[in-house]
Amino acid sequence: MKKFAFALLTSLACTLAQADYRMIVPQAPGGGTSVWANVVAPHLARVLGEPVIVEHIPGANDIPGFNRFHNSLQNDPKVIMVAHGGNAESFLTDKVDYNYDLYEPIALVNLNILVSHNKELDPFKDHLKFGSTSGRRPDVMAIIMMACGPKPSVDAYIACYKERMTFVKGMKPTDARLAALRGELNITRETYVSHKKFIEPMVKEGKFVDWFHHGIVDLKTGKIVNDKNFPKTPMFEDAYKAKWKQAPKGDFYDSYVLVKNYRDVLQKSLWVGKNNPNATKIRGSIVAMLNDPVAMKAIEADGGDYEWFVGKDMTRAYEVIRKQVTEKRLKNLYKFTVEGMGLDAVYKPELIAK
What we know:
The chain has 14 helices and 13 strands. By secondary structure, it is an alpha/beta fold.
């Protein structure tokens, strides 16, 4: 019996040692994060010297996959969580199990989103139709500010939202995109890769117009700056000022900046469990991948030329947005989510920066 137990334990140890690395993606295949992970995984595998597979754990608002990582997978030394912007948005306002503060940071890519609309739409007069999926609150808030112009309060923007926008709930990203392309919705938002693949051809055909992008967070200053990946499209603040002859400001704008920065800074972020024995190896492999011209050419062709932050640099980057969580911004984000968009939300005072 002892020999059998020893053999079983030895076999189990060998199996664990030989297990492939797994990148957990909290959405179904075909989503933006899934596509990105499948581009990155083979290049990471090559420098790691071990296979890296992409495992999808989809669910409502892309929350279950991250919750499962938190509850049962984070102690596996070969599991890497691929969290995205929708997860970051949910962290601010939804009931979730996961908590970024509890994991080892591996790397993040500081990204952006571009908002486009049907050519026939006059966004300043016509009714707006937009599809809900994970990570779209910043888009809704920016669209409403652009369409409604300067308003004195969060309540005034909520009233304008209810009057001007139909927000179709329960859609998947691909469904929302297809509905926009079919004309059932008149506004869409996309990452660099999705815009390049699906929307840019429609812009060239004269069927869609690129309205604005959200800009990049300068992770040294916390300010929002322009994005070289979208040179022909104005940043939200610039587009707003061009239309309304003043810069966006006020409580509603401040809450938008908070959720936009969380969404975009953490739009593609990699995490492992605390004290993961492979964390240093994985970070080192990411650095090696970033220094490989072949790998980076492939990754940038898919996802654009955006800055990566690894290890301690990622921790410092996260602290920039973490310090932006104030009581007023968080309360107003909660207020708009519940009273405006009609979504379930949780107010989380524990997230307020000390």
